[in-house]
Amino acid sequence: MLNKEDIILLFLEDPYKLAHEIWNKNVPKSDEIRTLICDLGGPHCAYRYALCVDEYSRSDTRKASCKDPGRAFFYAQNVDRSPRSDTRQAACKDPWCAYRYARDIDKSPRSDTRREACKDSYWKERYEEWENSLKKK
Predict the structure, then answer these.
(1) What is the pLDDT of residues 52-70, one digit of tens each?
(2) What global pTM score does this model have?
(3) Is residue 120 part of a domain?
């Protein structure tokens, strides 16, 4: 198990190595470590901590994960396992994430996800194809 000092050193060396250690559950579950991960490790590490160590959602890991659209999407999909306004808002900062949030989490089109997805022509086309497929059902 990594201690607080090891976590700081590992993060300074390579944040993705820290994420790997979290994934392998080599980081203890504690409020102090969780706060350190959320503050120091960034969105990716906070998401991994919630998914692999806590194995449930918490407001602190969700808030830290929502600093990145992709991590917000994956947090909603794999930790919350349901839509929430805060994760949707964060995911809507990226066209791919907005499209995937609508399709995989909301499971229905929404004006906010459509607006963001349509900022990129590729994701606009995917969003429209998906909407049309829903209308045919």
Answers:
(1) 999 999 999 999 999 999 9
(2) 0.91
(3) no
Q: 35 lies in a domain?
A: yes
What's the CA gap between 27 and 33, in Å, rounded?
8
Alpha helices for 1-137 (secondary structure H): 4-13, 15-23, 31-36, 42-48, 59-65, 69-75, 85-91, 95-100, 111-117, 121-136
The per-residue pLDDT for 3 is: 87
Distance CA 17, CA 77 (A): 23
Could you tell me the residue range of the domain that residue 4 belongs to? 1-65
* Type of residue numbered 92: C
Considering the domain boundaries, does residue 37 fall inside one? yes
Average pLDDT over residues 16-45: 90
> CA-to-CA distance for 99 and 18, rounded, in angstroms?
29
Residue 6 in this model has a pLDDT that exceeds 80:
yes
In a domain? residue 98: no
Give yes or no for a contact between 23 and 48, defined as CB atoms under 8 angstroms apart: yes
Structure tokens of 102?
């609508």
Number of domains into which the chain is organized: 1
